[in-house]
Amino acid sequence: MRSTAKLQARGFSAVEILLSFLLILALSAVVVPTGRRTIERSGVSRAEEGCRAIAEGLIEFVADTGSLPGGDRAPRCWTWLRGPGADCAFEVFPEGRVAELDWILVEDGTRIGERWGGPYVEGLQSDPWGRRYVVLLEGRGDDRGARRRVWVLSAGPDGVIETRPEDSRTVGDDLGLALDL
After folding, report:
1. Domain 48-180, architecture per CATH
2. Which one in 28, 45, 92, 124 has a CA-CA gap of 20 to 30 Å to 113?
Protein backbone atom coordinates (compact mmCIF):
# COMPACT_ATOMS: atom_id res chain seq x y z
CA MET A 1 0.00 0.00 0.00
CA ARG A 2 2.79 2.43 0.79
CA SER A 3 4.37 2.01 -2.64
CA THR A 4 1.04 2.87 -4.36
CA ALA A 5 0.74 6.09 -2.34
CA LYS A 6 4.30 7.07 -3.30
CA LEU A 7 3.56 6.57 -7.03
CA GLN A 8 0.39 8.66 -6.85
CA ALA A 9 2.20 11.45 -5.00
CA ARG A 10 4.98 11.62 -7.61
CA GLY A 11 3.06 11.57 -10.92
CA PHE A 12 -0.10 12.58 -12.68
CA SER A 13 -3.11 10.35 -13.01
CA ALA A 14 -4.33 9.21 -16.42
CA VAL A 15 -7.38 11.46 -16.06
CA GLU A 16 -5.20 14.54 -15.42
CA ILE A 17 -3.03 13.75 -18.42
CA LEU A 18 -6.10 13.23 -20.61
CA LEU A 19 -7.67 16.51 -19.48
CA SER A 20 -4.42 18.38 -20.12
CA PHE A 21 -4.18 16.86 -23.59
CA LEU A 22 -7.79 17.81 -24.40
CA LEU A 23 -7.21 21.38 -23.20
CA ILE A 24 -4.13 21.74 -25.41
CA LEU A 25 -6.04 20.25 -28.34
CA ALA A 26 -8.93 22.70 -27.87
CA LEU A 27 -6.59 25.69 -27.66
CA SER A 28 -4.69 24.64 -30.78
CA ALA A 29 -7.98 24.28 -32.67
CA VAL A 30 -8.52 28.01 -32.09
CA VAL A 31 -4.95 29.30 -32.40
CA VAL A 32 -3.75 27.40 -35.52
CA PRO A 33 -6.47 28.63 -37.94
CA THR A 34 -6.07 32.19 -36.68
CA GLY A 35 -2.31 31.96 -37.21
CA ARG A 36 -2.78 30.59 -40.73
CA ARG A 37 -5.14 33.42 -41.67
CA THR A 38 -2.65 35.97 -40.33
CA ILE A 39 0.18 34.41 -42.34
CA GLU A 40 -1.97 34.28 -45.48
CA ARG A 41 -2.99 37.95 -45.09
CA SER A 42 0.68 38.83 -44.67
CA GLY A 43 1.48 37.04 -47.95
CA VAL A 44 -1.35 38.86 -49.70
CA SER A 45 -0.08 42.23 -48.43
CA ARG A 46 3.48 41.49 -49.56
CA ALA A 47 2.26 40.35 -53.00
CA GLU A 48 0.22 43.54 -53.41
CA GLU A 49 3.28 45.61 -52.45
CA GLY A 50 5.39 43.71 -54.99
CA CYS A 51 2.80 44.33 -57.72
CA ARG A 52 2.71 48.06 -56.86
CA ALA A 53 6.52 48.31 -57.02
CA ILE A 54 6.61 46.62 -60.44
CA ALA A 55 3.74 48.83 -61.69
CA GLU A 56 5.56 51.97 -60.53
CA GLY A 57 8.71 50.73 -62.29
CA LEU A 58 6.77 50.16 -65.52
CA ILE A 59 5.25 53.65 -65.32
CA GLU A 60 8.73 55.17 -64.93
CA PHE A 61 10.05 52.99 -67.78
CA VAL A 62 7.28 54.26 -70.07
CA ALA A 63 7.92 57.87 -69.00
CA ASP A 64 11.65 57.53 -69.81
CA THR A 65 11.41 55.53 -73.03
CA GLY A 66 8.07 56.62 -74.45
CA SER A 67 6.81 53.06 -74.92
CA LEU A 68 6.03 49.83 -73.13
CA PRO A 69 8.49 46.95 -73.35
CA GLY A 70 8.26 45.69 -76.92
CA GLY A 71 7.25 49.18 -78.09
CA ASP A 72 5.55 49.55 -81.44
CA ARG A 73 7.24 46.35 -82.64
CA ALA A 74 4.97 44.32 -80.34
CA PRO A 75 2.71 41.87 -82.14
CA ARG A 76 -1.04 42.40 -82.17
CA CYS A 77 -1.41 39.62 -79.59
CA TRP A 78 -0.41 40.51 -76.05
CA THR A 79 3.02 39.78 -74.75
CA TRP A 80 4.10 39.01 -71.23
CA LEU A 81 6.96 39.56 -68.82
CA ARG A 82 8.03 37.40 -65.92
CA GLY A 83 10.02 38.03 -62.78
CA PRO A 84 12.33 35.69 -60.86
CA GLY A 85 11.00 32.62 -59.09
CA ALA A 86 9.26 29.36 -59.87
CA ASP A 87 6.92 29.20 -62.84
CA CYS A 88 3.25 29.62 -62.13
CA ALA A 89 0.49 27.90 -64.04
CA PHE A 90 -1.87 29.75 -66.38
CA GLU A 91 -5.54 29.04 -66.94
CA VAL A 92 -4.94 30.29 -70.49
CA PHE A 93 -1.25 30.39 -71.41
CA PRO A 94 -0.26 33.81 -72.77
CA GLU A 95 0.69 33.95 -76.43
CA GLY A 96 3.42 36.08 -77.87
CA ARG A 97 6.87 37.00 -76.78
CA VAL A 98 8.15 36.68 -73.25
CA ALA A 99 10.84 38.77 -71.58
CA GLU A 100 12.37 38.81 -68.13
CA LEU A 101 11.37 41.72 -65.88
CA ASP A 102 15.01 42.00 -64.79
CA TRP A 103 15.99 42.94 -68.37
CA ILE A 104 13.55 45.82 -68.36
CA LEU A 105 13.31 47.10 -64.79
CA VAL A 106 16.68 46.23 -63.22
CA GLU A 107 19.22 46.31 -66.07
CA ASP A 108 19.11 47.71 -69.59
CA GLY A 109 18.63 44.34 -71.27
CA THR A 110 16.52 46.02 -73.92
CA ARG A 111 19.59 48.04 -75.03
CA ILE A 112 17.58 51.26 -75.18
CA GLY A 113 20.65 53.20 -74.16
CA GLU A 114 20.39 56.76 -72.88
CA ARG A 115 16.59 56.71 -72.65
CA TRP A 116 16.76 53.89 -70.09
CA GLY A 117 16.83 55.61 -66.67
CA GLY A 118 16.71 52.55 -64.43
CA PRO A 119 16.99 50.56 -62.38
CA TYR A 120 13.27 51.05 -61.86
CA VAL A 121 12.85 48.38 -59.17
CA GLU A 122 15.35 47.52 -56.47
CA GLY A 123 15.72 43.87 -55.51
CA LEU A 124 13.13 42.28 -57.79
CA GLN A 125 12.11 39.02 -56.10
CA SER A 126 9.54 36.27 -56.39
CA ASP A 127 6.11 36.60 -54.80
CA PRO A 128 5.54 35.42 -51.20
CA TRP A 129 4.76 31.90 -52.45
CA GLY A 130 8.06 31.66 -54.35
CA ARG A 131 6.52 32.17 -57.80
CA ARG A 132 7.14 34.72 -60.52
CA TYR A 133 5.31 38.00 -60.77
CA VAL A 134 3.79 38.22 -64.25
CA VAL A 135 3.07 41.28 -66.36
CA LEU A 136 0.50 40.80 -69.11
CA LEU A 137 0.52 43.38 -71.91
CA GLU A 138 -2.62 43.60 -74.02
CA GLY A 139 -1.94 43.84 -77.76
CA ARG A 140 -1.91 47.35 -79.11
CA GLY A 141 -4.75 48.55 -81.28
CA ASP A 142 -4.52 49.76 -84.87
CA ASP A 143 -3.82 53.29 -83.68
CA ARG A 144 -0.15 53.97 -83.18
CA GLY A 145 0.44 55.08 -79.62
CA ALA A 146 -2.92 53.74 -78.38
CA ARG A 147 -3.06 53.03 -74.66
CA ARG A 148 -2.56 49.42 -73.63
CA ARG A 149 -4.00 47.50 -70.70
CA VAL A 150 -1.22 46.14 -68.48
CA TRP A 151 -1.82 43.67 -65.67
CA VAL A 152 0.83 43.22 -62.96
CA LEU A 153 -0.03 39.96 -61.22
CA SER A 154 0.88 37.45 -58.58
CA ALA A 155 -0.74 34.03 -59.01
CA GLY A 156 -1.72 34.06 -55.34
CA PRO A 157 -1.63 31.06 -53.02
CA ASP A 158 -2.97 28.59 -55.61
CA GLY A 159 -0.19 29.39 -58.11
CA VAL A 160 -2.51 29.76 -61.13
CA ILE A 161 -2.87 32.98 -63.14
CA GLU A 162 -6.53 33.19 -64.08
CA THR A 163 -6.70 36.88 -65.04
CA ARG A 164 -6.56 37.71 -68.76
CA PRO A 165 -5.54 41.04 -70.27
CA GLU A 166 -9.12 41.88 -71.24
CA ASP A 167 -10.49 41.32 -67.71
CA SER A 168 -11.64 44.37 -65.77
CA ARG A 169 -10.65 42.90 -62.39
CA THR A 170 -8.50 40.09 -61.06
CA VAL A 171 -9.97 36.59 -61.29
CA GLY A 172 -9.78 33.79 -58.71
CA ASP A 173 -7.16 34.37 -56.03
CA ASP A 174 -4.89 36.36 -58.37
CA LEU A 175 -3.48 39.52 -56.81
CA GLY A 176 -2.51 42.56 -58.81
CA LEU A 177 -3.51 45.73 -60.51
CA ALA A 178 -4.33 46.96 -63.97
CA LEU A 179 -2.75 49.97 -65.66
CA ASP A 180 -3.74 51.67 -68.87
CA LEU A 181 -0.48 52.95 -70.37
Report:
1. 2-Layer Sandwich (3.30)
2. 124
Q: Say what the pTM is.
A: 0.71
User: What residue segments make up the domains of the chain, in order of their start?
Assistant: 48-180
pLDDT at site 180: 83
Q: DSSP 3-state assignment of 99?
A: strand
Q: 15 phi and psi, to 5 degrees?
A: -65, -45
- Whether pLDDT at 5 is above 70: no
**120-155 per-position pLDDT tens digit:** 888 889 899 999 999 988 654 444 556 778 899 998
Beta strands at 89-90 and 160-161: parallel, antiparallel or unpaired: parallel
- How buried is residue 100: exposed, middle or buried, by Cβ count under 10 Å (0-12/13-18/19+)? middle
Dist. CA 179–CA 81, nearest whole Å: 15
Separation CA 119–CA 18 (nearest Å): 61
